[in-house]
């Protein structure tokens, strides 16, 4: 049966291909040290599992969540969290939408705003969903390069006048996948002003907001900026904060107009989040302060070990400030693809070529600190030794 032309406009999800490559290697008896997909290897906290089990036993949670926006208990927990963590006031009635993770919200917000031919400003490199959803809606993605010399922040001044005037939406993602950068509050202030001036909606993907290493780098919410709610919606997720990627739960917060638009799009596609899961998510957010430091300390140990190892091989790299990714420049004479291929073939080390994230990702590979199996630091040390033995250095 012939499939829709629309489907031909989007590629297969890249990580499914990487997962398939790894499975083929394992079938051949080779198990690479896996710095590939960013998926927390630590378990969901027991108190969250307990909250889900208890909530699932209550038949009240078994029906559709007819609120459309999320249960009052979950929305209240989100508003409390936003106040404690970012000092931001969000109204549970109208400024919050429960979501099936950040990805679902990022997809549906594009469907809510973008018509064929509309321009969307998309960072490059970036999480693939921004560009793919734009083209699925018939929109035109205009790339905003993220360069190391700009702290991996889009240079607003460099966006051509025509693109600013045409753009209806801008995606941002801080803490950033794949670069590990964070956005200072002053940057969000400039972006907010820019969005007001050129009348566009800012979609800030905050999926990694709690994965950071130093309190000095604690990520901000764009909603901390006065007037941001008029132009911004921010996507949050429990996936990375609480090791809950498979649970599929998050939220959007922002101005009521943007939340309403998202809600209208998504409620016609999904029917909300299992109410027992919303109760468990509320329980997680209520105990955020207790749990997050352990998670952050574990990634800090891994980051420091990997950065020390790469530096010992001559790699000119600074420690990332947030997210659980190391964005390493490739040695001279290599492309991101050739280097990733060499690492896999000669060193049994799986990394993602930066070009997967866009043209400006060329020259880098991404290494995720979410490492499966026992002895994480041992595996990091082994990967560095394999690279040294394989003659890979910068
Ligand atoms: C930048 C970014 N945003 C969103 C997501 C998806 O998060 P969720 O599991 O909440 O859908 C990911 C997942 O890797 C990501 O890297």
Order of helices and strands: HHEHHEHEHEHEHEHEEHHHEHEEEH
> How much beta, percentage-wise?
5-15%
In which range does the helix fraction lie?
Answer: 40-55%
Can you count the helices? 14
Attached small molecules: pyridoxal-5'-phosphate
What Rg is obtained from the alpha carbons, in whole angstroms?
Answer: 21 Å
Shape: globular
CATH homologous superfamily (4th level) name of the largest domain:
Type I PLP-dependent aspartate aminotransferase-like (Major domain)
Contiguous runs where pLDDT drops below 50 for at least 5 residues: none
Examine the coordinates and then state which fold CATH places here, giving the name of the CATH topology of the largest domain: Aspartate Aminotransferase, domain 2
Task: Describe what this molecule looks like in 3D.
By secondary structure, this protein is α/β, with parallel strands linked by helices. The chain folds into two domains: 5-44 and 290-389, Aspartate Aminotransferase, domain 1 (Alpha-Beta Complex), CATH 3.90.1150; 46-287, Aspartate Aminotransferase, domain 2, CATH 3.40.640.10. Helices cover 42% and strands 14% of the residues. It contains 14 helices and twelve strands. The chain has a seven-stranded mixed beta sheet, sandwiched between helices. A three-stranded antiparallel beta sheet has the order 9-12-11. Strand 3, helix 6 (129-136) and strand 4 (140-145) form a beta-alpha-beta unit. Helix 4 packs parallel to helix 11 (275-286), helix 5 (101-113) packs parallel to helix 6 (129-136) and helix 12 (288-312) runs parallel beside helix 14 (376-389). The longest helix has 25 residues, at 288-312. The protein is globular and about 60 Å long. The model has no long low-confidence stretch (mean pLDDT 96). Bound molecules: pyridoxal-5'-phosphate (PLP).
